[in-house]
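Input sequence (94 aa), recorded before submission:
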Amino acid sequence: MPHTYRLGRRAQFRRGDLVVGIVRTSVDPDDPWARLNLLDEGARTGDVVEVRVGDEVPVGRHVLTLVEVVPGTRDGHVAFTVAWPEGENDASAE
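Predicted structure, token format:
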């Protein structure tokens, strides 16, 4: 089972070539979404995307699956798992 990572506001996730940052989260608890800055440095590709729970988002050679999106201006956060490229996993990407 893949590891679930939690990323808070104004924080950045970095493992191997994968970089994830929260640009913004919604403030409406009835419509939770987050805007993420995603980058795969190894593939030299990235994007800013709006995500919701259950979304699977390709990021270069990786795929993020959104497990939780909590709205809020201060305490908003996201939780996600990562499908790593062949030969990498949660431990090897550290």
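Checked by second reader. The chain has one domain: 5-83.
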